Amino acid sequence: xxxxxxxxxxxxxxxxxxxxxxxxxxxxxxxxxxxxxxxxxxxxxxxxxxxxxxxxxxxxxxxxxxxxxxxxxxxxxxxxxxxxxxxxxxxxxxxxxxxxxxxxxxxxxxxxxxxxxxxxxxxxxxxxxxxxxxxxxxxxxxxxxxxxxxxxxxxxxxxxxxxxxxxxxxx
Length: 171
Prior knowledge:
Structural class: alpha+beta
Number of strands: 11
Distance between the termini: 20 Å
């Protein structure tokens, strides 16, 4: 098959390139942003920065300032800045990380967990009503990016996992 034919078939979706098609079943691992399991690396009058356990070479940086909080990642000593992208996905005012859970989505290969996405829950206030949103980050080393979100009342965890599998799991 010519390379151009292969590319055309791949673009059309006729060649299965997803992890599922390669018989790699998505699995989850979990870490925490709990203050008692993290290292305080910076603290100000109205701000904080915690280094939290990550997986597969990633460190999770839990940051907060002026009543807002979010996650950034460090990979190979380079920190990603995911604040604005996460806030753009989280409607309303004063978005904050909603709990201590960090969900890593990936697959097992030779007994090792290989993550391709990170999912975490944010909460905010929309017209005075609480709103929860699950943020989906595609893991790509120092180039990791927020790729989308799912409102907790419109798909919740299952919707966020499906989004991660669709947008992040391609090899």
